User: What shape does this take?
Amino acid sequence: MDATVITDIFGSYSPIAPMIVLIIGALLMPALYFGFKKKAPVSAIALIVMVISIAINLIMLTGANYPAEYASFEGLFEYNAFSGLMILLFQTVALITLFVSISSTETTTLHFGAYNALLLIATVGMMFIGEANDLVGIFVGVEAVSISSYVLVTMKRCDSRAAEAGVKYVVIGGLSTALTIYGISMLFGSLETLTLSELGPALAANGYSWPLVIGLICMIAGYGFKIAAVPFHMWAPDVYEGSSTPVSLFLATGSKKMGLVVFFKVFLVMFVVAKSMAGFDIELIQYIFAIMAAFSMTVGNIVAISQNNIKRMLAYSSIAQAGYILIVMAVMSEYALVGGLFHMFTHVFMKGGAFLIVGALICVGIGEKITDYNGLAKRAPLLAFAMMLFLFSLAGVPPLAGFTSKFILFSGAIFDADGSGVMTQWVWLAFVAILNSAISLYYYVRVIKAMYIEKPSKDASGKIKIPNTFAIAIAVCAVLVIVLGVYPGPILDLCADAAAALI
Amino acid sequence: MEGSFILPAIVLVPLLGSILTLFMGGERQKYARLVALVFALITLGLTAIVMLGGDDLSQFDFSANWIDSAGLKMSLLLTVDGLSILMVFLTAVLEVVVVAFSYKEGDRPNYFFTLLLAIEVGLMGVYTAADYFLFYILWEVALIPMYFLISWYGGPRRHYSAIKFFIYTHVASLVMLIGIFALVFQAAEVNGGLIDFSFAAVSNASGAFPALFQTLVFGLLFFGFAVKMPAVPFHTWLPDAHTEAPTAGSVLLAGVMLKMGSYGIIRVCIENLSIGAQNWQSVMIFMGLLAMIYGAYACIAQRDLKKMVAYSSISHMGLVMVSMGCLTTTGIEFAIFQMFAHGLISAMLFMVCGMAGHNIGTREIPLLGGIAGKMPVYATFMMFAFMASLGLPGLIGFWGEFGIVYAFYDWCVANDVIYLLIFCLLSLLLTAGYYLFAMQRTLFGRLTTKIDFAHVHDVDKIEMVCLGVLALLVTVYGVWPDLALTMINLYSFPGVI
Assistant: This one.
């Protein structure tokens, strides 16, 4: 469709048109719930708002006649192929979360309007980060997401685990905010700019200085908490376990991607530009990220083996997945970024799908322990099959989506995009990643074994009927996990455009 | 999309069959075996078209675009040549045989046949794919159904064996994946940027690969394939997997899955990395001889018939490894011949040993004895299979061993290491020894009193047909090995020498 529709309506605000719609929706939510006093109509309106926002974004992303780089607020927010793709990712996550929250028994009924409003606000925050052109814009976006999610985590009010998770999340979140803002101030002090595109040239001109290095480390640590990379990962399992499953899903697939987007937009661009400007030496930083990546994968996977709670297991596995994506930060090439973006997308559906199944089963009274899944294949054959797809995809078994994206992501560590064929510098990282994939298979197969091979316990028998919304969402994720694996062409094209737009 | 549709059909027909049987639950599950048999027969028929299609195998090439974005090019390319055609034929024959042979399967039969057909999809795909991405995907596709086959339908220690099999081979294939990345990216540099995963793109560029690169990447790929083969010391998953797998699983595993390893070594390693192959030659010969002798020695000590046959597979795949390691045209040709021969023979062996479990009730050699009198047909087939495996002239096994010893002799003379032949001959001697020893203890002598013969029954009709077909093939190819050798000659070996 012609994108002039959007520019005609929103004028110079059109880059933030998808957010405007959502903000209006978020503000209406509590009032609507006060009026309707039922979950379904409120959720329906939230979903409609989200679909409108997605439609706007899709028109802008794929439609003709849209000014390629169109900025509003004097260049503070800018819409391009990269931000469009990331916005699409966040919207997808939010759509799934909103959709299943209707029938999830874990979500609050008392404050459902506020719950929906907070989800929308958090999504808007993430979307602003996708478009932000400035460290301040990014900081504000991250805070909008963090503060909303503190509340979302604790909304399961009568559960002591939720309270514990909430407290941990607030304290760790506060620490990370403090570190970040401190880091930003040091960075501003030494480079005298906050605009993302100017950071690289300024770095190349000024070189390293102590305040700059301290600032960078603070920022890496601060945002490292957001993506739960080792050693900043301790909060993730507790928070994912304590909060209601739709919220865990939102945090694991959405909020984590937000952190990665920040990494790409701030650090990747800064160092790649600095390197291209003056042959600036960025090897040290690359090694810092490589070590972070290697540790995240290894610690995440090894600790996941010993988990008996499936939510905690998935939490550790998503720490490992963040480690895989951090390979992009170590390699710092456009080709690796394509793989990273693609993996972010497939991760939404496979990890999201796994969390959806966990959430759906909680709704019908099946616990979170892996032993509770014994004999699931007999009681719910399709559900068990979908779970198997998601877990195999997470482990990277072909021909599923997780395999295809890992294939491209890991190859990024071996392929030298500068045209010299095989690059030996990061081959070890690819080795670590691939060995980790093999380790991860072990704990994923444990769940599959429980579902397909173990006998169900005596008191748990009979067929399982999960809520319809969950069934639909799971089916969509399962189909996408297969389709993205077998036919990744279109999404890969979008990722390639986005990577080219960013770097 | 262009070319002949026979090869895609060979891959897709079993897939269709497996999807169909998957949904044949409840009342209809007793018809699953018929459906599976029909689909396996259709696949065999399609394979026959290829086998009888004459010398021009390129007429069966199929190509279609798949992924072409972000600088990556992966295509759906399927071909057959002299290397793969016998493997495709072997897969199709063994699939029909195992599906027919498993007609008694009573526990959730529909899933059983789904898994058998799904394994065929992967195997057919691996042997026909001409694109590394497709090759890798189908390589893994063959693995997963085998895991479920062992862990659902296997023996008492099935869970342990299944997961051991899965982890071993998965780690190996991941290492192989790194090797594939390296090959493809190096080729992309030579070819000027576009990352093309097709076999042709890599082999065209392979002449320009630097020596160090070849040596390193050969090591990675070789490890990946050697675990699958399996070469000593990476073999420990095999006896466990075989002992616990159901008979049908063992037949496919030994008959065609092990050949994936040696197929990969020839197709990927030796074809593309000639300098690497020369640098690794001594390792290949050493590992081959080690597997031959270690496998044969281990056979003597086994109490379980199936485990004995499993170790004999290791020993016979050692022969293949030695033969490939010679890196001569004769060596490669007879390696392919031995892969085919061992496929047919080991299928018979595992069926016979599996039947000891089904029909007699035990596979323990010390418990058996003198059963030739009670089960004459069974004993005949067992003797036939053992004789074929130890290389009796007139049967297919003889030509494989003969050719390999000949190729190895040539290599030894050329390299002045003639004493190595002793190890080769020693293993042949041991092979004859353990088979005759096992036969003597199980078939002949005084009738055992340790088992109850009330429920023991001889080979039934369907089992007899299955074994008979294989025995016929073993004899025909044994009397007339040219049938297979002319096929193998179609393989234009790039020539390392």
